[in-house]
Amino acid sequence: MAQHETSRFRSFIFSRSGMVLLGFLAVAVYFLWEEHAAHILGYLPLLLILGLCVGMHFFMHGSHGGDHGSHRDEPREDDR
Questions:
Q1: Is the Cβ–Cβ distance between 58 and 51 less than 8 Å?
Q2: Could you give the C-alpha distances from 31 to 40, 54, 62, 71, in angstroms and in order?
Q3: What pLDDT digit, counting tens, does each position of 35-69 carry?
Q4: Which residues, 6+ apart, have CB-to-CB distance to 68 below 8 Å?
Q5: What is the C-alpha to C-alpha distance for residues 59 and 57, in angstroms, rounded to an integer?
């Protein structure tokens, strides 16, 4: 964000409307958590495993670049 946009965003957040919006969002998050905590905590192990798999995929393929199929025709070092 540019400096002007950042100051405009801050002035909105600390205005009366921004405080009402933050209060409404806090109440909404509280009631959503109270109603759905058992569901969220029940799926937490699954989400952790899924997140680890996605993270490993991105980090382990980071050195390849974007094209997965470009190295298939080249002989491997073991085959030479």
A1: no
A2: 13, 30, 40, 52
A3: 999 988 999 999 899 999 988 888 887 655 555 55
A4: 61
A5: 6
pLDDT tens for residues 1-40?
666 677 777 788 889 999 999 999 999 999 999 999 998 8
Distances (CA, A) of 22 to 5, 26, 48, 54: 19, 6, 29, 32
Residue with tokens 């025709």: 73
- Tell me the C-alpha distance between 40 and 34, whole Å: 10
Say which residue the tokens 């094209």 belong to.
67
Residue 55, class by beta-carbon neighbours within 10 Å (0-12 exposed, 13-18 middle, 19+ buried)?
Answer: exposed
Collapsing DSSP states into helix, strand and coil, what is residue 75? Answer: coil
